[in-house]
Amino acid sequence: DGGITQSPKYLFRKEGQNVTLSCEQNLNHDAMYWYRQDPGQGLRLIYYSQIVNDFQKGDIAEGYSVSREKKESFPLTVTSAQKNPTAFYLCASTIGETQYFGPGTRLLVL
Amino acid sequence: GQQVMQIPQYQHVQEGEDFTTYCNSSTTLSNIQWYKQRPGGHPVFLIQLVKSGEVKKQKRLTFQFGEAKKNSSLHITATQTTDVGTYFCAAGGSNYKLTFGKGTLLTVNP
């Protein structure tokens, strides 16, 4: 069953804590993306990667970090430097220019 | 950077009424895509428009790309409760990056 999986579905972060959101795809797509969605703000690009071991900052990269050690995986770390992390985080991968999204992770701050 | 403006932000209709959302850019777009996000869900690709003046239909949905490739619209004829959700336009750019509009939230009163 092909697709994009994200885990966990809900994640709680304490003040000063780093948390990592998982994104895995078995679609054999080269490019992967992380977006943040806030109510009324649409989707804003955090980081993207077009190939293994390479990634670029998006429009709102501050306070986030990523790695791309495997084609299938593109984890996102929300660091303690991100002062307003509460949001819905969406991972996507691309064939051509069409993006396929995972189910998302909702991050909440305790 | 590239920006796309989407209007209206919200639209409430009675079931059976028509609905239109508009997407505008100050720059010429190479292509434009439309996505639908159901409440609590993730964006799902609907269609891509590439050619100037292009019109595509999917059942009750009609998508248009302006002659100058700076605007696009999505029109739904005779809305149904299953049409509820947020509709996003997304402008294609370099490196397969997409710039998303803020979306139009459609609610349908049965």
Secondary structure elements and their pairing?
The complex is a heterodimer of chains A (110) and B (110).
Chain A: E1 4-7, E2 10-13, E3 19-25, E4 31-37, E5 43-51, E6 54-57, E7 64-66, E8 76-78, E9 87-95, E10 98-101, E11 105-109
Parallel strand pairs in A: 2-11
Antiparallel strand pairs in A: 1-3, 3-8, 4-5, 4-9, 5-6, 7-8, 9-10, 9-11
Chain B: E1 4-7, E2 10-14, E3 19-25, E4 32-37, E5 43-49, E6 55-58, E7 61-65, E8 71-76, E9 85-92, E10 98-100, E11 104-109
Summarize the structure.
Chain A has 110 residues and is mainly beta.
Description:
The complex is a heterodimer of chains A (110) and B (110). Chain A has no helices and eleven strands. Chain A is globular. In chain A, the strands form two sheets. In chain A, strands 2, 4, 5, 6, 9, 10 and 11 form a seven-stranded mixed sheet that branches. In chain A, strands 1-3-8-7 form a four-stranded antiparallel sheet, with no helix packed on it. Chain A is mainly beta. The N and C termini of chain B lie far apart (41 Å). Chain B is mainly β. The model of chain B has no long low-confidence stretch (mean pLDDT 94). Chain B is 0% helix and 55% strand. Chain B has strands at 4-7, 10-14, 19-25, 32-37, 43-49, 55-58, 61-65, 71-76, 85-92, 98-100, 104-109. In chain B, strands 2, 4, 5, 9, 10 and 11 form a six-stranded mixed sheet that branches. Chain B is globular. The interface between A and B is medium-sized, with 24 and 23 residues.
